[in-house]
Task: inverse folding
């Protein structure tokens, strides 16, 4: 895949450490970033223009001698610490050259190397400026890719010990260099002193021509196709094919678990878990994986749009994150394993028409009314209702040229007895006037305003109670979604739409069979009149009551239809006569065009009369036939007991 993408990749055969060969990551810190999924709405920053004039800052007149001396001491300590660390690093590098066990230099391993600026690479060559100022290609450098993890590292990494050879689909190179560390290896594959080639002259891009004329170069190039290095047998392996099902499974047994230092990383194939979990990361306090700290769970293809669950083991806090698209607009939910602890819900504000607020206090802000009849000291700008303290604070709009705004505070009076009105107490009111010349509100005005605010407070309470019911419904729904998770998939999914198509075909076949059965089965006129009797046998009186009710309703429907048609016929007749009288009276006052329009309108009325008359005749005949048919069907219905036992009745 790397070669197909144009990367100069080769396979390395050599020796690696035991942890690398066994893919033991227990001493490696967790290499990935923790994916905390946030679905916050992006807020547009409010950029304010800077001030034109600014005050100059005061000069610093304090002495910083002690601070400078302390900074010098810290710098000296940092230098000494850096020197100690460098000595320790050199000692560790010397110790790394020693064999850990008897298998230290015997654990064979293979990995991938990418040689940058390789001659046969189709990637653009990196260049640099040499000492003479010329632009020349950079020297070849190598990067390693560990196939068991996919991690990329440079040649200074400590997990590889020896390199014996490298090879690709064009040639095989044997390492001839003397070195102590892998980072000391030179990667110029054209140097035969460092790398011995199995196939000389391959690939052609690495050939070095020493001829002196273009003719010799042409002959060398022409003889390239005639060269023969060795006979190789054809591949005995079938073409590798990875189907969509195998590619989606990804891991053996549909899951993979890797242990890192203080962390466990679990990954699952899509749709392999009933709850749609695809990834789980658990962080531990210790390296023995006994004391967990935090756990991240990631989900896909959930019908409830659950995306992430974050669990804190110590506090028991659980955070759930959802994608946009839920009916309740839920975005984030925070709760605790202890049901007594409070719950926090965040919603997508763009998809809700209301806002969920805390009942302890509500703040409402209003714009200035456009009408000029309402003065500023009576136009409410901010209404604050403090439910805990029982206060209502009204802040009015600023008047023209005023530095402050008027405020009015009500202390909620005690609730009166049943049937009594609220008594107004002037001492429970606090008024601040921004303009002394404004008139004082009368007690009657304050009393009416207080009643309006109390009504508004009750309205806010009812709205909040409705929101509480909605929140409780969300909690109930989340419990059902956690208990019975449902996964969704695309209709274009070739691995799963077969089942969906079969289910849809089954439903379509059932609907078609039901339609066929309803069309072939005679109409049951009596069924609606047997509902009150709950599938029990009817008595003689009940049977005749159902019989008469069915016929009477049928007769009523036909009589109403006939009356409606008769009324339409009479209206058209009256309209036609009126139009005919109008034409006879004012015939000489119309031109030809308008007269023809009126004649055409008269003909349309006559056509509609004939149509209504024909429908009236057909409906009358059809009603008589249907009435007799339904009556005969009811007489033959076994569910009706129309005959008394021991007597005969003539119909």
Result:
């Amino acid at each position: 895949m790397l070669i197909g993408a144009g990367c100069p990749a080769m396979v390395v055969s050599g020796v690696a450490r035991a942890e690398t060969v066994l893919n033991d990551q227990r001493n490696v810190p967790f290499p990935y970033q923790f994916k905390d999924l946030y679905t916050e709405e992006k807020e547009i920053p409010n950029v304010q223009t800077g001030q034109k004039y600014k005050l100059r800052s005061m000069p610093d007149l304090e002495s910083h001698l002690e601070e400078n001396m302390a900074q010098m001491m810290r710098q000296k300590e940092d230098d000494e610490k850096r020197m100690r660390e460098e000595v320790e690093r050199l000692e560790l590098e010397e110790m790394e050259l020693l064999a850990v066990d008897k298998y230290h230099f015997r654990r064979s391993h293979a990995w991938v190397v990418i040689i940058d600026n390789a001659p046969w690479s189709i990637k653009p060559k990196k260049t640099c400026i040499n000492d003479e100022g010329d632009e020349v290609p950079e020297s070849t450098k190598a990067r390693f890719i560990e196939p068991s993890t996919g991690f990329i590292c440079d040649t200074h990494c400590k997990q590889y010990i020896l390199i014996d050879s490298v090879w690709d689909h064009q040639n095989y190179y044997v390492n001839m260099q003397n070195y102590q560390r892998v980072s000391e290896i030179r990667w110029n594959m054209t140097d035969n002193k460092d790398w011995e080639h199995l196939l000389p002259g391959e690939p052609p891009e690495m050939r070095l021509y020493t001829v002196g004329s273009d003719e010799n170069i042409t002959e060398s190039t022409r003889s390239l196709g005639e060269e023969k290095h060795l006979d190789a047998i054809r591949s005995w392996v079938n073409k590798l094919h990875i189907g969509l099902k195998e590619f989606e499974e990804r891991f053996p047994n549909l899951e993979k678990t890797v242990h890192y230092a203080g962390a466990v990383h679990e990954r699952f194939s899509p749709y392999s878990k009933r709850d749609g979990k695809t990834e789980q990361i658990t962080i531990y306090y210790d390296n023995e994986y006994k004391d967990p700290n935090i756990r991240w769970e990631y989900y896909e293809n959930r019908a409830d749009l659950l995306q992430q669950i974050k669990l804190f083991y110590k506090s028991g806090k659980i955070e759930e994150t959802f994608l946009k698209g839920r009916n309740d607009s839920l975005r984030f939910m925070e709760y605790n394993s202890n049901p007594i602890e409070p719950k926090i819900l965040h919603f997508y504000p763009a998809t809700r028409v209301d806002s969920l607020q805390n009942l302890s206090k509500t703040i409402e802000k209003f714009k200035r009314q456009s009408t000029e009849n309402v003065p500023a000291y009576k136009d409410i700008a901010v209404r604050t209702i403090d439910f805990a303290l029982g206060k209502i604070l009204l802040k009015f709009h600023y008047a023209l040229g005023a530095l402050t705004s008027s405020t009015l505070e009500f202390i909620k009076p005690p609730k009166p007895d049943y049937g009594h009105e609220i008594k107004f107490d002037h001492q429970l009111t606090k008024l601040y006037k921004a303009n002394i010349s404004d008139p004082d509100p009368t007690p009657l005005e304050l009393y009416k305003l207080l009643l309006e605010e109390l009504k508004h407070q009750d309205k806010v309470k009812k709205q909040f109670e409705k929101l509480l019911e909605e929140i409780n419904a969300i909690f109930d729904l989340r419990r059902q979604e956690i208990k019975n998770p449902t996964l969704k998939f695309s209709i274009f999914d070739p691995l799963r739409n077969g089942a969906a198509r079969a289910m849809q075909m089954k439903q379509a076949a059932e609907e078609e069979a039901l339609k066929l059965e309803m069309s072939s089965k005679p109409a049951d006129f009596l069924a609606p009149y047997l509902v009150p009797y709950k599938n029990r046998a009817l008595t003689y009186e009940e049977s005749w009551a159902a019989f008469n009710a069915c016929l009477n309703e049928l007769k009523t429907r036909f009589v109403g239809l006939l009356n409606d048609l008769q009324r339409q016929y009479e209206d058209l007749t009256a309209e036609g006569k009126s139009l005919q009288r109008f034409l006879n009276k004012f015939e000489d006052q119309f031109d030809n065009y308008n007269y023809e329009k009126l004649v055409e309108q008269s003909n349309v009325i006559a056509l509609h009369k004939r149509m209504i008359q024909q429908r009236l005749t057909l409906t009358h005949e059809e009603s008589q036939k249907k009435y007799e048919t339904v009556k005969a069907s009811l007489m033959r219905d076994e569910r009706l007991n129309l005959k008394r036992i021991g007597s005969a009745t003539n119909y």
Remarks:
- Residues 527-636 form one domain.
- Confidence is low (pLDDT under 50) at residues 213-222, 646-651.
